[in-house]
What we know:
Strand content of chain A: under 5%
Largest sheet of chain B: none
Radius of gyration of chain B: 25 Å
Order of helices and strands of chain B: HHHHHHHHHHHHHHH
Helix content of chain B: over 70%
Number of helices of chain B: 15
Distance between the termini of chain B: 33 Å
Number of strands of chain B: 0
Structural class of chain A: mainly alpha
Structural class of chain B: mainly alpha
Low-confidence stretches of chain A: none
Distance between the termini of chain A: 13 Å
Largest interface: A-B, 105 and 109 residues
Oligomer: heterodimer
Order of helices and strands of chain A: HEEHHHHHHHHHHH
Amino acid sequence: MAQQKLFKGITPYFFVAPAVFVLAFTCLYPVMKGFELSFYDWKLGTPMASRQYVGWENFAWAWRDPALFNSIRVTLIFTACAVTAELFLGLALAFLLEKGMRGIAILRTAFIIPIMIAPVVVGLIWRYLFDANFGLINYLVQLVGFEPKIWLGTPGLALPAIIITDIWQWTPFMFILFLAGLQSLPRDPVEAAEVDGATTWQVIRQVKLPLLAPVIWVAIILRVIDAFRSLETMFIMTFGGPARETEVLSLNIYKTAFLSQRLGLASVNAIFLLAFILLLSLGFLMIARPALAKK
Amino acid sequence: MALGNLASQKTLRGGSRVTLFRRKSWKAGKYFLVFFLAFVYLIPIIILVQTSFKTQVQIFTKVPTWIFVPTLENYRTVLLEQGFVRFMLNSLEVGLIATFFTLLIGGFAAYGLVRFRFRGQGVISFGTLLLRMIPPAVLVVPIYVLWSHFGLADTRTGLMIVYIGLNLPFTIWVLISFISEIPVELEEAAVVDGCGPWKIFFKVILPLIKPGLAAASIFTFRISWNEFIIALVLTNRITRTLPVATTIYLTDIGVQWGNITAMGTLIALPAIIFTFLAAKQLIAGLTAGAVKG
Lengths: 295, 293
């Protein structure tokens, strides 16, 4: 990035100040307020004056709260399964469809729609598809001779259903990133390997994948951050059920604050979510640093 | 399946008739895969749209009906009876105004970060990246509390402010990559002509980063149009946006699929139209930064 000194003095601060002010007001200040709230016992809907300082009591409660640990577990399983599947499907598709072919433009357009439409609508579509009585999935399941299932109401099936929905929505994102990455790879190493008689598989394994590594890492990091924040599909499809099986941490925070009406405890859970996302991102950045530095 | 295809591709080189046959079947296999994927990706969308034109009876069948006489009853209910128009205007107002200010403020900041060296610059760039990671669920409780305190809860303005903040990091990120491609000589020439920094920004920089502004505005508007959880908490019966309004039809008794799919179709419509009109720009926006670096 070419950085040039065009103007000096106070001007640059004027350019950056509005953004800093807005970000401080909408992100930084609320996060700090969240830390403060975590030390209070405060029921939703009661005046601020009625809140009581309870010290670390909310943290102690959270530590013994099976619902919190359950939702951390659900979030981790959901993120790990969905992102892994999206990564491998996206990679496989990108390598398969790398060389242009007729009709691919239509597919690419079809691929972007799930990314663009509201997660709420994605949740609605898949709640309907997974519907036990008149959903398309049970119809197809019966066509091939299996018993219909109550997908979204059966423990052991609801979370996989949510994960499938996420894979449907986000595999295209991985695919588009990888395809763009493959198309911007330098030609020489690939051609050199082909001249040397490498098979397609060897070219992919030993030439293209290492060159693609920075894009792969960026895609993983972006998707993990996104998977951690998603709650709309769960909200619409199952509202966290059955028996909290699909209650991700984000949904747990919403339910604790606005259904159980415990603002302090919800703030503690939010701190857990923030800590997890920061640790995970930092962890990934550390692992990915050698690959990213090459870029 | 992917591995099998790769294995068959291995034998592509060489010139015998067998490999020619293999090459052809490999190509046919690829077309089959593309067709299958288009099915998997378009069918759910088609079912959404199709269901919105069905009567209650046609919806509640065990075997899906593909051919039927379409009804506009669901759209009539949604558009006329439940205040859809008001919610749509809320969504439009919040989305458009938030997008405008995000681009303006984000453009300033991106220009400042690219072209000026100043104390605290590193902190600001890194901080922007860090803020991009905060999940909305972390903000939802404190923002509800603070906005109630400031009288911003239940107002469209309150929601707009949150969306500007949520979209700024991404917008700044995209615009930085566009601004840093502009040759600095242009601005130097403008300085010689006696332009100040603000005039340069509006007259030189903004016209040159139009593609970046287009990409960023589509994504910013999309986030505001689609956002659910913060809108759910920050709006009331009057000020709610479209995604929140869908919850009306998710009752304890059951889901009114006809109405809710009509609403879902209307919410998804701008996204679907944009996708067909501007697929290239959308891909550019999605891959910005990730691929080019």
